[in-house]
Amino acid sequence: MKNSIQPSDSLLFSTAVEDVQPLNYDGIEPYRHKPSPHPRPRPSENPPPAVTARLSETEVTTHDYLLYAQPGIQHRVLAELQRGHLPIALELDLHGLTADYAYATLQAFLADCRVRRLRCVRIIHGKGSRSADQQPVLKRKLNYWLRLHSDVLAFCSAPRHDGGTGALYVLLRNPNKRHQPS
C-alpha cells in the first residue's frame, strides 16, 4: 500500500511554495571556466652535480623492506605511512623499465606531484624477479634517488595488500610548507 500524503501536509506545502516562480531552463549546462593546465617540466638528463655530491650510491644499503625518514619526521606520521593510512593521491608504475628511463620518469612524476600539490604517492618498482641475479635494480636505484630528492620526506615499503616489498609509499613535503633552496 502506498503512503498517501495527508491533506494537511499538502496544504502546508502549497502555502510554503505559493509565491515560487519556475526557472527557465533550456537543458544546457552553463559554461564553467576551467583553469588552464600547468605544463609538466621536462626531466633533466642527469641529476645536477650539487645533488649527487651529498650521497654516494654505494653508501646506501638496500634491504628487502625499505624505510627512510628525514630527521624531524614525527613517529606517528611515519607509522601512518607504514600502515597505509595516508591517502594515496597518485601512483607511478616503474617495474619493467630501464634505470635511465625510470629515472627520467620519476623526475617528471615528482615534478608533477609538486605542481599538483600532492602529499603521499605510491611508486611500484617490482621485486626484481626478472632482473639479472634476481636482484631488484629499480628498488636499489629508487632507494638512492628518493633520498636525494628535496621534496621526499620519507618512504617505506608498502603493506602486502598494496604491493609489499615491490612498491613504496612516498611522503612528500607539505605543499603549504615548501622550503626555499638556499
Automatic annotation (TrEMBL):
<dbReference type="GO" id="GO:0004520">
    <property type="term" value="F:DNA endonuclease activity"/>
</dbReference>
<dbReference type="Pfam" id="PF01713">
    <property type="entry name" value="Smr"/>
</dbReference>
<feature type="region of interest" description="Disordered">
    <location>
        <begin position="24"/>
        <end position="51"/>
    </location>
</feature>
<protein>
    <submittedName>
        <fullName>Smr/MutS family protein</fullName>
    </submittedName>
</protein>
<feature type="domain" description="Smr">
    <location>
        <begin position="92"/>
        <end position="173"/>
    </location>
</feature>
<dbReference type="InterPro" id="IPR002625">
    <property type="entry name" value="Smr_dom"/>
</dbReference>
<dbReference type="InterPro" id="IPR036063">
    <property type="entry name" value="Smr_dom_sf"/>
</dbReference>
